[in-house]
Amino acid sequence: MSKISISSSILESKERKGIGIIPFLTSGYPSINESEEIVKALIEEDLASAVEIGIPFSDPIAEGKTIQKSSSVALENGVDIKTTLDSIERINSFKEHNVPIITMGYYNPILKMGLKNFFSASSSVGVRGVIVADVPNDELHKIQKIANDYNIDTIPLVPLNSSEERMTHACEMGQGFIYCVSVLGVTGTRESLSKNVEEKVVAVKEKTNLPVAVGFGISKPNHISELKKFADGAVIGSAIIDVIKESKKDDSVTKVIDFISKLSK
Q: How many domains does the chain have?
């Protein structure tokens, strides 16, 4: 289980490798066992500064078709918050490691479970941070009080078109890292990064000492080499799900490791 903070882990990778890579996987996709094995392999191969594990949800509004599909497959596999946390417990107990695990989910299932129950259960399996994709940062502020009782960071999203005021607020209340969304729209792989990403990251960095990571659409080695110039971290999601989808049975672990190795080099 990770003892290092999310911020320290990303900044340490930035110093050592030029950028921190934060892979995203949907819990239970393509199966519970395979998604666990992929995370374990990423940890073993030293390819992740942190790992984001998506809690499947029936209406993931921030996601494009790729992650939506992985979410519906995971739901068919019977995956929910409890299954996801059980899975994280197994990942965190398979060996001593320093890779913080972050959950990414939607507010409805968390609310249904109860905030205290959710954060207490998350803390007990070693979750270090949480991203709630459909909660604005003003509301996240209220959730943060409970999360912090359980030593869990709440990570804010900063969209490309966020106002100065909202960006400042996200930086003031942010924990773990500031997540800059690189596109106007949903997740999914893209050919090139938006021209405004660097400008946004630089503006955010003026307002916080936390690492700043960029996500949504990061899928190519040239994206990573570009991001190394101005960002601390890169979140890779849909591209990993695509690799898993195109893998043959029992081949997904090797394929994802190969993909992330090439991407980060």
A: 1
Distance CA 104, CA 98 (A): 19
Nearest to 101 by CA among 152, 50, 32: 50
Tens of pLDDT, residues 157-209: 998 888 999 999 999 999 999 999 876 544 444 455 767 899 999 999 999 99
Q: How far is CA 249 from CA 31, 64, 241, 246, 253, in A?
A: 11, 24, 14, 9, 10
Tokens 């924990």 locate to 175
Per-residue pLDDT of 92-119, as tens digits, reads 998 889 999 999 999 999 999 999 999 9
Write the CATH number for 56. 3.20.20.70
Between CA 59 and CA 102 the distance in angstroms is 20
The kind and range of the H/E element at 172 are helix 164-173
- In terms of pTM, does the model score above 0.85? yes
Q: Which range of residues forms the domain containing residue 47?
A: 6-155+218-255
Tell me how far apart the alpha carbons of residues 47 and 29 are, in angstroms, rounded to a whole number: 20
Report yes or no on 148 lying in a domain. Answer: yes
Give strand ranges (E) for 44-148.
Answer: 51-54, 101-105, 127-132
